[in-house]
Design brief:
five-stranded antiparallel beta sheet; alpha+beta; single chain
Length: 197
């Protein structure tokens, strides 16, 4: 099992290592890039925020999104504590059912947490933070290694997505994001983060 986990990490690091020049910048930038992947593994949004970053072509972004989606799916299945967690969840449900039966009510079943998969990947050049929504959309935020509060920034990016993309009546789910308001608000927010450094 650890061999499969190591192979998955080597695959994603090898793919990202091929893009090392993309991160070739002088000095600290903060937030470098954002990639959004739909639940099928398709690239639906990408944006770079550093002025000195080398630009990838569209095919490179598609390869990066597909590779990450595959590795994320593999790592979501690799959980050495899965049996223990399932046993604990069943014990909690049985205890809740027993308590509800003694109180004369019906127990409300609870759901276990979904498997998370790859959440953070750090290298000497950058840090990749993944936020996986309940619908399967993945937000990949690339930052420099010294960036603080990446999870707060990721939550704000998701809030902007919810407010300006998902509430847009012309946006179709799982399709590329083409929303000028989202672009403007996102650029403003990332500029604020990067200028505060």
């Amino acid at each position: 099992m650890s061999a499969v986990r190591n192979a998955a990490a080597i695959t994603i690091l090898g793919t990202l290592h091929g893009y090392r020049e993309w991160w070739g910048h002088s000095g600290l930038v903060g937030v470098l890039a954002l990639i959004v992947i739909n639940k099928a593994g398709g690239l639906i949004y990408n944006r770079t925020f550093g002025d000195g970053l080398n630009q990838l072509n569209t095919n490179d972004y598609l390869v990066l999104a597909g590779t990450f989606h595959g590795v994320h799916a593999i790592t979501a299945r690799l959980n050495p504590l899965k049996g223990l967690l399932n046993a604990q969840h069943q014990q909690q449900q049985q205890a809740a059912a027993a308590a509800a039966a003694s109180a004369g009510g019906a127990a409300v079943p609870t759901r276990p947490d979904p498997p998370s998969g790859l959440e953070v990947l750090e290298s000497e050049n950058f840090r990749l933070q993944c936020f996986n929504t309940l619908t399967g959309t993945k937000f990949l935020l690339f930052t420099d290694t010294m960036q603080a509060n990446v999870d707060v920034a990721m939550r704000r990016v998701y809030d902007l997505y919810s407010d300006y993309v998902m509430k847009n009546p012309f946006y179709q789910l799982e399709m590329p994001i083409r929303c000028e308001t989202f672009d403007r608000k996102l650029n403003s927010y990332i500029r604020e983060i990067n200028s505060s450094r």
